[in-house]
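This section describes the prediction task in plain terms. A model, or a person checking by hand, is given the sequence of a single protein chain and must write out its three-dimensional structure as a string of tokens. No templates, partner chains or ligands are provided. The sample shown here is typical of the held-out split.
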Amino acid sequence: MKTIIMRIAGLSFALLAAVHLHVASAQTYPSKPVRIIVPIVAGAVLDALARTIGQQVSDSIGQPVLVENRPGGSSIIGMQACAKAAPDGYTLCMTVADSLSYVPHLFKNLPFDPENDFAPIIYLVRGNSMLLANANAPFNSYREMIAFAMAKPGAVNWGTWGAGSIPDMYLQWSKHQMGVDITAVPYKGGGQAIPALLAGEVHITFMAIGPMLPHVKAGKLKPIAVVGDRRSPLLPNIPSLADEGADPGVRSYFGLFAPGKTPKPIVERLNAEFAKGLQTPRLQDFVRAQTLDVVGGSAAEFAEFLKSDRANAGRVFKAIGVRPSDAPS
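The expected answer:
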């Protein structure tokens, strides 16, 4: 009995020590630069968001917030680096739905566990996007694109950010729902896909509405459909995918994560700092320019959203007959 009591006391002491260590680390955090891994190339909206809000958080915490782009492998390379980093709050990752809602249903043998290797910090913003085409594409609407693809199988080139990316998901859904053959052309992110679309290397791709409006107004690109179940006030005459009967019901998000075992006090501190960053004038200007919607909320609320979003993505991929393949190396 005495031995059991001593063991219980020892375990209790160890637990109290661990709690004290986590609290102490949170109180001194951060004491050095914080790194945000972005798993796509520089130049896209996600990268710009990371750099913009990173500067706001840096001003608040008194430490540099550095952005590191780690593209490749359908975002797996960057997310693996984040998952395997020390869970001390000094390495974070910012990503979109591709990485943790779509990729788990598309690839097997992932080098990380999407549910347990990441600690959700905050749902930053919600995207408002569209399908848009090069000005010289041989179609002017979603239905015209489908008709052209039916008449000429494989002739339409659709720019994606690799298998499992948001543009690829919409491509696969369109192919399945409409029974057409469209060619996927992969890039490492929007930063590469945009120049390719402008140059006519691809006919169509998926992009955020805000940054593309100047190209639309200049006549270099043309909107084909607004993604989602409602039209955009910025493009009131452009049908939504729901209008076209082609909305899979998934929604894009921009979220911040830490490695899975990051102490809760540090996660809560980061949530508070980035929530505050969302309210700064510079970030609000950025959000308006990019036609994004601020979400915010607690880490727990973001975690619940992710469970639902991943499950819905699974239903979509099952419906279009996607079977997991080996993860790209």
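For orientation: The CA atoms of residues 41 and 192 lie 8 Å apart.
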